[in-house]
UniProtKB/TrEMBL annotation:
Protein species of origin: Paracoccus suum
Chief place of localization: cytoplasm
Cited CDD domains: RsmI
Job description of the protein: Catalyzes the 2'-O-methylation of the ribose of cytidine 1402 (C1402) in 16S rRNA.
GO CC annotation: cytoplasm
Protein name listed in UniProt: Ribosomal RNA small subunit methyltransferase I
Length: 301
């Protein structure tokens, strides 16, 4: 999640002759696809082809990705580093390789390492012993969901997984609902309905976007208020990887629909949509971006 399992679409192997030369020694945190295998970056392929040591949250997933893109192991070590061995010495051989001046590429099961995935202790350990740590950026379920959500992206909080129990989840919601930012969370598909029920008890009118199976064959994006989505039959029996986004609270006194109408009126007076949204935001206290997006959704009318 960023652990969305790799897709099955097979890409044409990149000729080894066009790949980059060996990278500088250090630990490379390599982002991998959250769905479609072709979402891999050329730099990630370079690193996986030339690294001295390959490490992964799930070595089976990495082997499959290497196979899809035609990258051979050539006798290189493939080490496992995951939540079950990160506190029991799983980083020892990786840190030893770094101490010896190796280029180590570490990949999460899917997405960006350390984003709701193992890797924090490994990166800290590498830094502590003086090794260089580099990011090889790429796919991220967090950013992909934010991009397609239609919610304000000028300020956002990634809040990980909500707690599984009602009491703890309610406390979690109390902590995030007052934040003046779009909140992004991962959730089990089996708990989405309970999550919406808890949210409705606090603010059924809060805007919600649920992204399922991003970049995969059955990708789906559901938008609405918490109350609307809680009644949506598509929530029943939901499967796959789920990202939930919570819109920021609308300022009291002016609804977003009222703000949209105010923008439309200002545009009839000769202002551009952008200038009208800015004026309405300043007058109402609503976020400018949210007002602008509401105006876009309404066609400025």
């Amino acid at each position: 999640m960023d652990r969305h399992a790799g897709g099955e679409d097979r890409a044409e192997p990149v000729p080894l002759s066009v790949l980059a030369e060996r990278a500088a020694p250090g630990l490379y945190l390599v982002s991998t696809p959250i769905g479609a295998a072709r979402d891999i970056t050329l730099r990630a392929l370079d690193l996986m082809n030339t690294a001295d040591v390959l490490a992964a949250e799930d070595t089976r997933t990495l082997r499959h990705l290497l196979s899809i893109h035609g990258i051979p192991l050539r006798g290189r070590r493939l080490l496992a580093y995951h939540q079950h061995n990160e506190t029991s010495g799983g980083d020892t051989p990786i840190l030893a390789a770094l101490a010896g001046g190796a280029v180590v590429a570490y990949a999460s099961e899917a997405g960006t390492p350390l984003v709701s995935d193992p890797g924090f202790r490994l990166a800290r350990g590498a830094i502590a012993q003086g090794a260089q740590v580099f990011a090889a950026p790429g796919a991220s379920a967090v950013l992909a969901a934010l991009a397609v959500s239609g919610l304000p992206s000028d300020r956002f909080l990634f809040a990980g997984f909500p707690p599984a129990t009602d009491a703890a989840r309610n406390r979690w919601l109390d902590g995030v609902l007052g934040i003046d930012a779009t909140v992004i969370a991962f959730e089990s598909p089996r708990r989405v309905k309970e999550f919406l029920r808890n949210l409705c008890e606090k603010d059924g009118e809060r805007g919600i976007v649920i992204c399922r199976e991003l970049t995969k064959r059955f990708e789906e994006v559901l938008r609405g208020t918490a109350a609307e989505l809680a009644r949506d039959l598509r929530i029943e029996g939901m499967k796959g990887e789920v990202v939930v986004l919570i819109d920021r609270k609308v300022a009291e006194g002016t609804s977003m629909e009222e703000a949209r109408k105010m923008v439309a009126a200002a545009m009839k007076g000769g202002l551009s949509m952008r200038d009208a949204a800015q004026a309405v935001a300043e007058a109402s206290g609503l976020p400018r971006r949210a007002v602008y997006q509401a105006a876009l959704a309404g066609g400025g009318e």
